[in-house]
Design goal:
The protein contains twelve helices and 15 strands. The protein has 370 residues and is an alpha/beta fold. It is globular, with a radius of gyration of 21 Å. A hairpin with a 2-residue loop joins strand 6 and strand 7. The relative contact order is 0.16. Bound molecules: pyridoxal-5'-phosphate.
């Protein structure tokens, strides 16, 4: 059988599908030199908050700054602790450290999310917030997290970088805590053509404080009420995001359909487990991650057959060198996953024929081994 090339993501085919809109958006911004702030940024912010069903959207430089800004504006700093998942991209924990607070990791459940059963034992007098990460596009058990946050009077800061339009009990990611943090990194479900991110919140005064901090501590030029940072969504990225926004629901549904095709066609391979889906939740499949025996062998075999895969992430956060200083590490689930997880190609434009090809190759790899 001939080798078929299956890339991990394909941002070119998405661009080709909406090229006239994107090109026009870019030339408008350049024509009006609306590079920083201004009309296109405001337009995207109001479009995104309306579509998402939140009161405020504050565009910022990226989905790492958005976490940092939220925590700074909650007054989190030295002497504080913030609880987060042992399995995420480093932004979730490095931003805690950036504020001067200490990241406190919790092992994960069978959905790759923070294990709510293990949160309470990590709470101390210093704990100020829980930072759940809706990893791969699937939301955490927000019922339990909300209950714990209420009981101990903690803020909830949702890292939604991988979970645009994900739902838990019909509530969207980012709508359940004081604020949600989104990334529009090009490969994310809603991706800009460079770095971009946003904060969503329903709280008017908190929204204003975040907006101010992200813009040198000023809401009005030269009126610096506080010292802030420079983290702004730029006009080009905002206009590109606005051009993509009308398609995002359709693209998200296509990701879900692709995931269903994978899971159906990978059934009955004892060496492979497909993603568990939480009850009452709507996954947005930023990533489709399987657990596989002899994962490295499988990954090489797939590559030989033209199929690009990645490992998100090779090490659990607490196992990274930068956290060597942490004591008493005990993250058996996140650590065991390191040698088994594999992210398969996933994007809205991925054709069924390619999904079937990937599944067939996974099957033939294990057949050859038995
Ligand atoms: C991508 C990502 C971020 C950071 O987003 P950037 O826009 O790249 O800064 C934060 N958290 C998670 C879970 C992510 O996947």
């Amino acid at each position: 059988m001939a080798i078929i090339k299956v890339p991990f993501v394909d941002l070119t085919s998405q661009y080709q599908s909406i090229k006239p809109e994107i090109d026009k958006a870019i030339s408008n911004v350049i024509g009006e030199t609306a590079f920083i702030g201004g009309k296109y940024v405001r337009e995207f912010e109001s479009q995104f908050s309306a579509l998402y069903g939140v009161k405020h959207c504050i565009g910022v430089g990226n989905g790492t700054d958005s976490l940092f800004i939220i925590m700074k504006m909650l007054g989190i700093g030295p002497g504080d602790e913030v609880i987060t998942s042992a399995y995420s991209w480093i932004s979730s924990s490095e931003t805690i450290t950036q504020t001067g607070a200490k990241p406190v990791f919790v092992d994960i459940d069978e959905y790759f999310n923070i294990s709510v059963k293990l949160i309470e034992e990590k709470i101390t007098k210093k704990t100020k917030a829980i930072l759940p990460v809706h990893i791969h596009g699937q939301m955490c058990d927000m019922d339990a997290i909300s209950r714990i946050a209420k009981k101990f009077n903690l803020f909830i800061i949702e890292d939604c970088a991988q979970s645009h339009f994900s739902e838990f009990k019909e509530k969207r990611a980012g709508s359940m805590g004081i604020a949600g943090s989104f990334s529009f990194y090009p490969g994310k479900n809603l991706g800009a053509y460079g770095d971009a991110g946003c904060i969503v919140t329903d709280n008017d005064s908190f929204a204003e404080r975040c907006r101010m901090f992200a813009n040198h501590g000023a809401l009005k030029k030269h009126h610096h009420q506080i010292e802030g940072i420079n983290s702004r969504l730029d006009g080009l990225q905002a206009s590109i995001l606005s051009a993509k926004l009308p398609y995002i629901i359709d693209w998200t549904n296509k990701r879900r359909a692709n995931a269903d095709h994978y899971s159906e066609n990978l059934m009955g391979i004892p060496e492979v487990s497909t993603p568990n889906i939480r009850r009452d939740s709507l996954h947005s499949f930023h990533l489709y991650v399987i657990k596989a025996k002899n994962r490295n062998g499988l990954q090489s075999y797939l590559l030989e057959n033209g199929i690009e895969t990645f490992i998100h992430y090779p090490l659990a956060l607490p196992n990274l060198e930068c956290y060597d200083y942490l004591e008493g590490k005990n993250f058996p689930v996140a650590t065991a996953n390191e040698s088994e997880i594999l992210s398969l190609p996933m994007y809205p434009e991925l054709e069924l024929s390619k999904i079937l090809y990937v599944c067939e190759k996974i099957r033939s790899f294990y057949n050859g081994q038995r």
